[in-house]
Structures are given as C-alpha cells and as structure tokens.
Design a protein that fits this description.
The structure is a single chain. By secondary structure, the protein is of the alpha+beta class. The chain has a single domain, classed as Nuclear Transport Factor 2, Chain: A. Helices cover about 30% and strands about 45% of the residues. It is built from four helices and six strands, in the order H-H-E-E-H-H-E-E-E-E. Strands 2-1-6-5-4-3 form a six-stranded mixed β-sheet, with helices on one face. The protein is globular. The model has no long low-confidence stretch (mean pLDDT about 90).
Amino acid sequence: MVEPSGLGLPTVIAGYFAAVVARDLKALVDCFTEDAEVTDEGQTMHGRAEIRQWRETGAASIYEYTIDVLGADALGEDHYLVRTRLEGNFPGGTADLAHDFTLGDGLISHLVIA
C-alpha cells in the first residue's frame, strides 16, 4: 500500500484513510465539514449525521475489507483524486475505486466515491 501521507496529500485526506483502515468512526466523521456531502453507491449523504449513519449501517459496516491507496492526483488547490483498491468478502471480492475529494476550511466538504 502507498501511504497517503507519502503522496503529498493534505493531512485531512490522509487522516480519512487512516480512520477507514482503523474503523474509527469518530475520527472519520471529524474529517468532514458540518455541511459536507458524500456520494457513494448512487446515494448522497448530507452533513455529519448522515455521513456517520452511512459508515455505521452501509456496506462499509457489513463487509470485511482492506483498502490500498494506489495513487493520487491534485486536480486543483483543494481538489484531489485518490485511487484505491478494496479487497474483501463483498460481492466480487475486489473493487478499484476513485475518491474525488473537495476541501473547504481544511476539512472534506465533498467526496464522491465511484
């Protein structure tokens, strides 16, 4: 796995992936602005409460998996695309995903996972 911190990513994005790996829900939610939006599997969650619920009850809570950061690109001053590979006991067993982050005030304001 490429360490997110070694890719020159902002601390908050590296922290997001560290929280995902650790399954630390509080640390993960703290990476987001109060009014952040996350889009995953065709659904958009609005605000920290819905983001918390998404992580507590969504696919991320149902399956066991590992996540490897494969690489990242800065698309602008506050816009980053991070490529990852998930492997686990979910249908298909492997998934390559793109995490499209937009930052605001040093936190994640928008995340699209596709």
